[in-house]
Amino acid sequence: MFDASEIEHDERDAQREVEELLAAIARLVRLWGMSCGASLGAFRVLEMTCIGTGSLHADELFRFDEGNRAAALTVLRWGPVLGTDRMPISPELRAALQKESDRLGKLRGGRGNKQ
């Protein structure tokens, strides 16, 4: 039997998940902009999930406090599901991530943004 309340419940769950992903991305963007031990890890999570390059070592996740780690895991969970082209980021953020990825690639000896 069709139950409209189940659809409403599913829609609320989907909306909550979108809001959590957007908040997690925003949190990692703020962390990336700070000068702290977790900044590079935040960038690497965003780089991997939003532009599809780079890599992340598990140790970088352990530099995050509990809230930042939860944000990173949320973004990492959705990255493969949505793919880089469907991650909910602005074109400006995508360009900034690409620019930083290219800059770091040059620092790694011209290997581009591949690790």
Keyword list:
single chain, 115 residues, mainly alpha, elongated
Q: Can you walk through the features of this model?
A:
This protein is mostly helical and 115 residues long. It has one domain. Helix content is 70%, strand content 0%. Helix 2 packs across helix 5. It starts with a helix and ends in an 8-residue tail after the last helix. The model has no long low-confidence stretch (mean pLDDT 89).
Please specify the SSE layout and strand pairing.
Blueprint (H helix, E strand, L loop, with lengths): L3 H29 L6 H13 L6 H5 L3 H17 L8 H17 L8
Helix pairs in contact: 1-2, 1-4, 2-4, 2-5
Helix content: over 70%
H-E order: HHHHH
Largest sheet: none
Integer average pLDDT: 89
Number of domains: 1
Low-confidence stretches: none
Please report the distance between the alpha carbons of the first and last residues. Answer: 52 Å
Estimate the global geometry from the Cα principal axes: elongated
Strand content bin: under 5%
Helix and strand content put the structural class at mainly alpha
Instruction: Specify Rg, calculated over alpha carbons.
Output: 16 Å
Number of helices: 5
Number of strands: 0
